[in-house]
């Protein structure tokens, strides 16, 4: 299993919600934001958390995917196993996003024969979405 957490940006939020005993409720909402961001990268954007496009397939990989009929799904999406394995949960004072397949780390970090195609991690837009969700959550909680 490979994970990515967001503990750095959760510092002040964690202190704010811990005092009112609301950590589980907000973290569940934030985990969903993270999970959906990773799924979007795999299904649509085909880019890393910094919004850099993933490297294209080699000719050999493109040919194999064409023969199997899965080329149209694009990078990191063949059988759907990786996509189905993406999940998120509270980890310490943050949220961990993970992909629970035996090959996720090879995709994330690359290998000697394959360039990395990072899909886990938090983009600036993800952080902004979590801050916005936090502010909306606080507004709902105090009104």
Structure commentary:
The chain is mainly alpha-helical and 143 residues long. It is built from 6 helices and 3 strands. Strands 1-3-2 form a 3-stranded antiparallel beta sheet. α2 (23-45) packs antiparallel against α6 (124-142). A hairpin with a 2-residue loop joins β2 (86-91) and β3. The longest helix has 23 residues, at 23-45. The chain has one domain.
Give the strand tally.
3
Query: Within the largest sheet, what's the order of strands?
Result: 1-3-2
- The biggest beta sheet, please? 3 strands, antiparallel
Radius of gyration, whole Å: 17 Å
What gross morphology would you assign? elongated
Q: Which structural class do you get from the secondary structure elements?
A: mainly alpha
The percentage helix is 40-55%
- The rounded distance between the terminal residues' Cα atoms is 40 Å
Q: pLDDT under 50 segments (min length 5)?
A: none
Report mean pLDDT, rounded to a whole number.
Answer: 85
Strand content: 5-15%
Which H/E pattern describes the elements?
A: EHHHHEEHH
Tally of discrete structural domains? 1
User: What's the tally of helices?
Assistant: 6
């Amino acid at each position: 299993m490979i994970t990515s957490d967001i503990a750095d940006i959760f510092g002040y939020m964690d202190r704010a919600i811990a005092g009112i005993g609301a950590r589980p409720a907000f973290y569940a909402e934030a985990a969903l934001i993270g999970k959906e961001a990773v799924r979007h990268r795999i299904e649509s954007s085909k880019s890393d958390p910094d919004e850099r496009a993933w490297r294209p397939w080699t000719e050999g990989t493109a040919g194999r995917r064409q023969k199997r009929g899965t080329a149209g799904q694009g990078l990191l999406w063949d059988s759907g196993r990786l996509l189905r394995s993406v999940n998120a949960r509270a980890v310490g004072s943050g949220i961990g996003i993970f992909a629970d397949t035996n090959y996720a780390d090879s995709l994330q970090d690359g290998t000697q024969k394959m360039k990395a195609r990072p899909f886990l991690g938090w983009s600036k837009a993800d952080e902004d979405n979590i801050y916005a969700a936090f502010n909306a959550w606080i507004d709902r909680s105090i009104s």
